[in-house]
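hi support,

uploading two proteins for the ticket. first:
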Amino acid sequence: MSSGKKKNVWLKRFAWLAAVGILAIAVWCGTLYSIIVRFDGIPNSGTPVQADVGIVLGATLWNDKPSPGLQERLDHALTLYRQGAFKQFIVTGGLDDNGATLTEAAGMRNYLVLQGVPEADIALDTESRSTYENLLFAKAIMDKRQWKSAVIVTHRYHGSRAGSIAKQLGYSPVQVSVTDSKVLKLSYHKTREVLAYTKWLLDKARMSFG
């Protein structure tokens, strides 16, 4: 076979492999996207069983106050709290890299106190920098205070991954209550969540086989 023909064969093989790879990525991303947008909470009814504590997953502060997106999470948690779903809060999140002078947790605590929640009912995780750390450090607070059950509060697009992480960390039962957003650019957050979910599944696999 001439060198020209060999080159054409290799180019065709490369093109075929590239097409298969692109298709596989598209199927993977489409599957995860479907899981993300169809998540309705755990349990699926959306009504959590009464728990010891509600864990509000952190997000950005603006000028040391909850951003509009984070306020949506806090307002959803307040609704559950007032309905009797839990009697204590854990708020999670460390110091942002955006010039904030308060941790996410401290800003969240301040907001809840202004809404009438006694400060004594709010425990803070001020060190976490990711969803995994949010739930890991919140679990440590629960263990220290002998709280056995929790409702995890976040946005819908974030709920499935949060539930998967909670299961990996030994939360039992796993309960995730989610809210939709009227203020976030969801096309951006859902796309970013596909990447974050992929990273989490790789990390989870390493934990399982490590």
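and the second one:
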Amino acid sequence: MSNSDLDTDEVAAIYDELLKTYRTEWEYRGHRSLHLSYYDDEHDEPAEAAMNTMRVLSEAAGIDGSEHILNIGCGAGEDSVWNARAYGAEVTGVNISETQLGLARENAAEHGVTERTRFNYDDFHDLDTIEDDSVDVVWGLEALSHSSDRARALAAANRVLRSDGRVAFTDLFLTGAGEGLSAAERERVETINDALGLRIGAIDEFERTLSAAGFEGIRIDDLTDGIKPCTERRRSFARIAHPVGRLLSVVGVVSETQLDSFRASAEIDRLIDAGVLGYYLVTADVSE
């Protein structure tokens, strides 16, 4: 992958392949979250912390049961199902992987929220399956880092939001303007981007893009300290899994995509330690 455009089919293929790794983690934790876990005093176990990320974002977004939430990049549907269960909200999830959408529908059925959820094959840059002025909240948990054109994605979000609608995102961003990175740091960012189908941008640039896309009341909270235990755990796992996986790849047990993801996990933690990457919660309202 280049540093510019992303091929959606290629991104979907990466995560469909990584499901082999995620399924093992899901069985261990008892949920289907693909995302970074947010630790605090009341949520200090991996499974609890993973669900806590959803809770923190929902509270910041002010979710209630009367609202229609659009979950962009919904993955296997864990956060869509969670909002439907916790708040009784109506949730539409969109994703570019039919495999993950199937898992999301299974997840909703298992938790008894099929009537309050639906899952569409749709690119969040287009939102062709979503009507104008039809949703109250556009929610994205580590979704927009998969975009090489966040202005286009936010324009689509603005189109489908009602006049009093809002957006709520958590994601990895470069901590400043994205300038002044060393050659080694740039190489690490590119390793992460290529392995996980990302285009990590700068938080300052994202704030400007939100404003230009017609949003106001922008609020940005730095949650980096809360996800550090998660990135550290993933880096520790990668330290063992990568060399073992390299041996297993010879006999086809572990794929190159999985190996690349192990390395990317380690690089994310290194760049967070270096202050290059941060994890941010961003909310904003549609401009009047």
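thanks. also noticed: Residues 8-226+277-286 form a domain with the Rossmann fold fold (CATH 3.40.50.150).
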